[in-house]
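Bug #77: duplicate submission created two jobs. Keeping one. Sequence:
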Amino acid sequence: MKAIELLMNEHRVIERALTLLELATMRIKREEKVSINALNTLLKFFREYADRCHHGKEENSLFPLLEAKGIPREGVALDEVELKALLAFLNSSFSQLQADAKGRTAGGVAC
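Kept job's structure:
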């Protein structure tokens, strides 16, 4: 398997995780139960796999090769600041959900 195929396959995995996050968000908005453990697993996935592992491969390998061929990063990659802001938002949102879940006994987010 070529390196680009590996990165593309990783994108499909990340897209599936984003779909799960979207489904969880819709359930929360409808005040349906969502597992805190599942949300924590998704958050951990985005922090450790998508950001550190996958993003690191792009930053260290793919983007330098593209730039060497005259293809700029702009429009191809999320800016590091944007990515960190997104992860901070997910962390903050998850912390709020955990706090809210502690006060609920029925409906909404479940532990």
